[in-house]
Every structure is written in structure tokens, then in C-alpha cells.
């Protein structure tokens, strides 16, 4: 059987928010939206809609676009889901000139696997912005080589911050399930193959992420007509160093 898509597998998608209390990016984006006085926020790759729901609960107008129907079904059951404009599809579905802030959380930016795809996504984000609007997103710092920690013969799940591109589990959740992971690298593309077991059920999924250079990220933004305001190295807003786990970008149209 061919490996499936984690986000399209109901039993796995249902565990996506299991470790949400440990996701430091949620508070970061809530604080950023408030600090920018963003009335309208659009989330590209909204996943289970947790951040969208939290933003709506904080009083923002929110649009969430998500290509996987399984994830979108979960999103539409979040606490403040009724206040969110949900869109099934990709960034091109966002209304033009609508948002004060566009976000890509959970390493969604790493799902654009070549320069052309990234430039197109950045262009759609720019198109969705009002004058003076901002785009924020993050990618993992490739020099840290986070993928080297992913291979495992079996760990408990759900046991991770299951954000997109997070890689396999790193914690313990006794009595749930086991995930085993194999990792393959090809240039700046990292593919991981995961086998998930729980009770008498098993699923195999795979995904490929891009770990682009900073030059590639900036070139895509420039192609889309955007430039960088700030880059942080972690969710505590610390500056970027060679050992920073993240590159967190805040950008604006030129």
C-alpha cells in the first residue's frame, strides 16, 4: 500500500492538537496580531484551525484557508469556528486586499518545494494584504539539521507539537500509540516516512519538506514584491544566530 497523507487521515488528524499547550508559536502570533493592531488576519494552511479560533476569540476578523478537507472539518468544530471565514483550498482562495496580517504557521512555508512554488505562495499572500499589511511565517534553520533527530524505531504518540513540518515525536504519551520514522535527504528536501500504530490499527504516511537557504527565501519574497522587516531566531523573539532553531520572518510589500 502506498504511504498516505497524515493530514488526510482522520485518525491521525484528530491527534494534531494533542500537544497544543506546548506550541510556543500560538502565543507569538496572538501577540504579533495584537501588536500590529491587525483587524483582519488570514491564515494560509490553517490546519485544524486552532490559531484561527484563538484569534477570533481575541476579537480579530479571521479567514482560514486549508487544502485538506479532513483538517478543515476539525477546524469547523473549534470553539470560535463560527466567527471564522473558512476556505477550502490554497492561498489563491484568499480575497484580495482583505488582511492586515497574513500568517503561515507550523512551518507551512516549508511545504513549497521549489523556488517557483514559494514565489507563487508569497505573491498570493501579498495580494491578500491591505495597504500597510504584513506577512509572517517561519522556516527551520537548515544549519541546525533538525531532521537528524527524527529517525526513531518507535516512540509514543501523540507526543509532539504536531505542527506541519514538525517531524516525528519527541516526548512520551503512554498508552496511546507508537510511531516509527525513517528519514531521507535529497538536497534541501527532507522526506520522512512514518508508521503509526494504535491498538490493532496501523497507518503509513509520508511527507516532504524543504529546508531552503535564507537566500532562497528572500529571493521568493523579492520576486513577489515583498521585503523583510524583521527576522527572529525563536519564539521568544531572540535574534538570529547560527544555532537558532527558527527563522521567523515579518515582511511587508514594497
TrEMBL record:
Residues 155-179 are annotated as: Disordered. Gene3D superfamilies: Vaccinia Virus protein VP39. InterPro entries: Methyltransf_25, SAM-dependent_MTases_sf. Keywords: Methyltransferase, Transferase. Residues 41-133 form the Methyltransferase domain. One of its GO terms (biological process) is methylation. Pfam families: Methyltransf_25. One of its GO terms (molecular function) is methyltransferase activity. This is Class I SAM-dependent methyltransferase.
Amino acid at each position: 500500500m502506498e504511504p498516505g497523507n497524515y493530514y488526510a487521515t482522520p485518525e491521525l488528524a484528530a491527534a494534531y492538537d494533542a500537544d497544543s499547550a506546548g506550541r510556543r508559536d500560538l502565543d507569538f502570533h496572538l501577540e504579533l496580531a495584537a501588536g500590529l493592531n491587525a483587524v483582519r488576519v488570514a491564515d494560509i494552511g490553517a490546519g485544524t484551525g486552532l490559531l484561527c479560533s484563538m484569534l477570533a476569540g481575541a476579537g480579530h476578523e479571521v479567514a482560514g484557508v486549508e487544502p485538506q478537507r479532513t483538517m478543515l472539518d476539525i477546524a469547523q468544530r473549534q470553539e470560535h469556528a463560527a466567527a471564522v471565514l473558512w476556505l477550502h483550498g490554497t492561498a489563491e482562495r484568499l480575497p484580495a486586499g482583505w488582511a492586515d496580517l497574513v500568517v503561515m504557521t507550523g512551518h507551512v512555508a516549508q511545504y513549497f518545494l521549489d523556488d517557483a512554488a514559494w514565489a507563487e505562495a508569497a505573491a498570493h499572500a501579498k495580494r491578500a494584504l491591505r495597504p500597510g499589511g504584513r506577512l509572517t511565517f517561519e522556516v527551520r534553520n537548515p544549519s541546525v539539521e533538525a531532521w537528524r533527530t527524527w529517525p526513531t524505531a518507535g516512540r509514543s504518540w501523540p507526543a509532539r507539537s504536531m505542527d506541519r513540518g514538525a517531524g516525528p515525536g519527541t516526548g512520551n504519551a503512554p498508552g496511546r500509540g507508537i510511531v516509527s520514522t525513517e528519514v531521507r535527504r535529497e538536497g534541501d528536501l527532507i522526506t520522512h516516512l512514518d508508521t503509526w500504530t494504535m491498538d490493532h490499527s496501523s497507518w503509513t504516511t509520508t511527507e516532504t519538506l524543504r529546508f531552503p537557504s535564507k537566500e532562497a527565501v528572500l529571493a521568493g519574497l523579492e520576486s513577489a514584491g515583498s521585503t523583510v522587516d524583521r527576522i527572529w531566531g525563536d519564539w521568544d523573539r531572540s535574534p538570529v544566530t547560527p544555532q537558532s532553531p527558527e527563522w521567523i520572518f515579518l515582511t511587508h510589500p514594497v
